[in-house]
Amino acid sequence: RAYNFNAGPAALPLEVLERAQAEFVNYGDTGMSIMEMSHRGAVYEAVHNEAQERLLSLLGNPSGYKVLFIQGGASTQFAMIPMNFLGQGQVANYVMTGSWAEKAIKEARLIGETHVAASSEASKYMALPELQDIKLSDHAAYLHLTSNETIEGTQFKEFPDTGSVPLICDMSSDILSRPFDLSQFAMVYAGAQKNLGPSGVAVVIVREDMITDSPKHLPSMLRYDTYLKNNSLYNTPPSFGIYMINEVLKWIQEKGGLEGVQELNRKKAALIYDAIDSSGGFYRGCVNAEVRSDMNITFRLGTEELEKEFVKASEQEGFVGLKGHRSVGGLRASVYNALPYESAQALVQFMQQFQNSRS
Ligand code: PLP
After folding, report:
1. For the chain, where are the E strands, in sequence order?
2. Is 193 assigned to a binding site?
3. Does some domain include residue 156?
4. Domain count, the chain
5. Does residue 359 surpass a pLDDT of 90?
6. 215 CA → ligand 1 middle, Å
7. Do 227 and 166 sit in the same domain of this protein?
8. Which domain holds residue 277?
């Protein structure tokens, strides 16, 4: 298997892929693949419900939350959130932390009034705003936050207390990578393709009282209450993706739940950050040390030429996905849940070899 440091779609656990392969053609002795089954049948519905229950169980079964499966990725959530939650005379509040927060507010601006409650743009997003500097507007409909900026490589370690204002969080690139207190949030959501499964489904975990009655003018597929009332089976769901999510959730349980995967994630990230910090300046981390992400490790070399050489040499050694996002350049190692520790070790070894060959 490749050393897969892709930012997304990302590596899936080998055990999950092998389990899925074993069941691919004949699921549970039905003579069919899970993706050939009716989404209205008992066999698929059991998988669908199990994935929802397993997800809530990993989050400690807080009361009042529902899991929805929605197509269109996290990007469609950027639009659905203001469409559903931004009422007349209200203001949508956003914390600006990087490329994905910018995309989220862009959609809200198409729908209604917005307010930047805090921003680290002045630091070129190399820092994160302090929680106490987040200033909500009057009539705030919600505060939207991006827990992990996939492109810049920053990650919030704690979340703000917004009182009665609903806190909504895009956790696309760090969901289920560490424990978090769901009860702090009115809604969290994530495109599946990093920590949860294949692309094609966004997972929304939302307090039920938020979505019982969506605005009447919204089309059915863009209303949260459609998904709530129909258990995300109003239309044909991405059934194979949801089956895969259930298998990934089983794998997380086997790894010791969120505490277990967090420990592994911290070890992997620390190994790579240590290699950067002990390189005598050959490698330089892009963001302030206290906001470094455990999921997306961004770093640079002295020149863009050298970075190109690094990427080329890494590919020759079986590494995939180390080129930084085209909008910011540099290098990025994405080390999501499924990246094996051995891959992080191999990267560190390669980084040292590359440095030795150039100095
Ligand atoms: N939000 C974050 C933090 C992301 O990293 C991404 C994708 O990389 C998205 C949103 C967009 O997700 P999607 O491609 O599922 O629309």
Report:
1. 3-4, 65-70, 91-96, 114-119, 140-146, 148-149, 154-155, 167-170, 187-191, 202-207, 284-285, 296-300, 319-320, 331-334
2. yes
3. yes
4. 2
5. no
6. 25
7. yes
8. 257-358
Q: Are 204 and 273 contained in the same domain? A: no
38-89 per-position pLDDT tens digit: 999 999 999 999 999 999 999 999 999 999 999 999 999 999 999 999 999 9
Q: Percentage of the chain surpassing pLDDT 70? A: 100
Q: Which residue has the tokens 């209205």?
A: 40
Strand intervals (E) in 258-358: 284-285, 296-300, 319-320, 331-334
Mutate to test the pocket of ligand 1, among 80, 94, 95, 100 (most ligand atoms within 8 A of CB): 100
Residue 157 maps to which CATH number?
Answer: 3.40.640.10
- Model pTM greater than 0.90? yes
Same domain, 83 and 198: yes
65 and 187 part of one domain: yes
Could you give the ipTM of this predicted complex?
Answer: 0.99
Helices (H) and strands (E) in the chain, counts: 9, 14
